[in-house]
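Bug #77: duplicate submission created two jobs. Keeping one. Sequence:
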Amino acid sequence: MKITIVGTGYVGLVTGTCFAEVGIDVICVDIDVKKIENLKKGISPIYEPGLDGMIARNVEKDRLHFSTDLPSCVNESDVIFIAVGTPPDEDGSADLKYVLDVARTVGQHMNQHILIVTKSTVPVGTAKKVRQAIQDELNRRSVNIEFDVASNPEFLKEGDAINDFMKPDRIVVGVESEKAQDIMSRLYKPFTLNGHPVIFMDVPSAEMTKYAANAMLATKISFINDIANLCEIIGADVNMVRKGIGSDSRIGTKFIYPGIGYGGSCFPKDVKALIKTADNVGYPMRILKAVEFVNDDQKSVLFNKFMNHFDGKVKGLTVGLWGLSFKPQTDDMREAPALIIIEKLLAQGCIVKAYDPVAMHETERRIGNRITYCKDQYEAAMDADAIFLLTEWTEFRFPNWTVLSKLIKQKLIFDGRNIYDRKELKSVGYEYFCIGVNTKL
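Kept job's structure:
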């Protein structure tokens, strides 16, 4: 079986590489010439643990190929996955321009049966638009060629995407025909030998499943952050509350860690898109609108604690940031809380120094040299009046507090991920602020 993946972003590149890993002949297509040339040299455009080695291995085995020429790939493919970007429009809806451009190109060049699969996160009804775009091109050519359209949403966690793809919790596939179901069953057979289920359903339900999954996870994050903020006011410890409710199997422990809000390429975009989808049919998504409101506010919580501690007199103070990416094991800065915090600190006249193991280049690409980028966490702490822990990279878990004491101006830690022990820090003379605990009580 030969497949083409259109789009070599996070989803497309991981998907194509993992399919190649099990022996499938894969072509990854992108319009970005430089990106494709780099991939041919083994240079990945994204940071994902284990991906570089897997790309190199499958290129060497001649199973993974890269191209900028989609028309030449169309009739060489049994299946074409659309994995291009769906950025939010100004109104929050998903922009389907790139998805439909791919569909039209397929319709202009196909001469045989092909299964076209939407892998991008798209609103309910997109598969119908893809089908219509292809059919319109076939009609213009006055040809009658059978084709199928399916939906196969991705469920990949940045930082653990390869494991998620190779050992999935579930594989969701929306199909319209037995032929499409048979093709997708054969394609995913290598990933189901250990009992991982393929859940077949109608296409609209598959499209909705992706949005509903991300919306639920975003809701859990905003819920625990809302509880954390209340805990601070009334004197409860959200870390204890989290353990108490997480032990209930109906709730579970995942995604109920208090922090400074969610970011990344999925949750913010997908929550907005689902809200907009509902608005378009006259149904208000009241819970999700609250989820979004809480998350927007949460990104400023750490900064507000900093301002309150200094009674707003922070001009000229130096702040060291530990971590920039929205989560560990990625260089993704999309919707990262760090970007909001940096802008607020700079607006108040603060000097900002930062260190992140992999995301500094991407941060610099976005905001330039308005802050100082450091070689490690200790350089970022040099002469700092406060340290902000923004991303819970493992190398930040056990700092040498004694060494740190000799570098900083003030022993002041603002922990946005609740990874430090306040009693330990207090014993060595630090003032400590975190999320969901009133450390003054």
